[in-house]
Amino acid sequence: MSFGAELEMLNRPVWVERASELMKEQKVSRDDLTDALEVKTVGAVGHYFTGRRDLSLAQAQNLSNKLNTSVAYLLGETDNPKFVSDTTAIQAGPLMQAFQLLCSSKGYDDKTTQIIYDVIEDITPENIVKVHNIIARAERSGNVGAALIDLESIRNKL
Hints:
Low-confidence stretches: 5-9, 84-89
Distance between the termini: 53 Å
Strand content: under 5%
CATH superfamily of the largest domain: lambda repressor-like DNA-binding domains
CATH topology of the largest domain: 434 Repressor (Amino-terminal Domain)
Number of domains: 2
CATH architecture of the largest domain: Orthogonal Bundle
Number of helices: 9
Helix content: 55-70%
């Protein structure tokens, strides 16, 4: 292998190696990825795999869906290629119970506890879980930009 080829291999993003392995296992070709990467040609797909172009968050999500994995796996944040839903880290039901227990522990009266409970219900425990997971991923990966996009998406849906 030439020095240039070796240098190119070192500069490739971590997702390229992981996506390539999953593609091989699942018999997915680069041609199959044009829709996921929102491009028209296999050559354009190649620009992402060589590191000449960076994936957007939407493209990373589309690619992870196409390869039946998580964005976290593709980006090297986890070594588990199995898809794990964002809501598995914290479940909504126990989250509500935790808030009730904490309110009780702090000595809040029933009226105050009910107000807090109503606010949480309005926001939805699922959105709390999503926001928690976005922030946790951002802290692990240092990718604050992607987290801000995800958080803005949730905020716009409230």
